[in-house]
Amino acid sequence: MLRYGVEMQLPEGKRPGYYAQFVKALAAKVRIEDRDKELLIVNGEEDCEALLELMDEYRFEYEQFELWPLPAEADVTPLFVDYGFVSVSDNAYLYGHLCAVFKLAEAGRDAEPGQALEQMQEHLVARIAGDGENLYAVDRALTDLMHGIAKAYRCKVEFVYGG
User: Fold this and answer.
1) Which residues, at least 6 apart from 61, have a Cβ–Cβ distance to it below 8 Å?
2) pLDDT of residue 118
3) Disulfide engineering: 150 pairs with which of 48, 51, 101, 157, CB 3.0-4.6 Å?
4) Domain range spanning residue 47?
């Protein structure tokens, strides 16, 4: 499910033909899934490695990211703008180094998951409805807080990414 993003900084002072050569090599060697300005998004590690090799070959500076793609039906909160972006193809992504994704499970007979979620609400970056299972995204720095809130309502948090 993870995607990989590589944000490139194009070198200054190169001739237009230099960029054309890069684009031609890119099309021949890498399957670009999506993009957002200078951020190229690929689906797997193999394409990511090929993309990084091209960046090195053409001497582009770059930064690599893990990205968590959100399904179209995901509900993002106002915090999303600090933790993700929407690509030119209208796909939403969370930055993997900033976010953790979890599911909430009942830990006992008197568990109150609804109350736990109400308490967690102000910290959520996104809600992702799945096949009988809801996922929630928060800032990675808040994983202990999510565990604490869940415990207070006799629930448990299971991180599926970044926890």
Assistant:
1) 8, 9, 11
2) 96
3) 157
4) 3-70
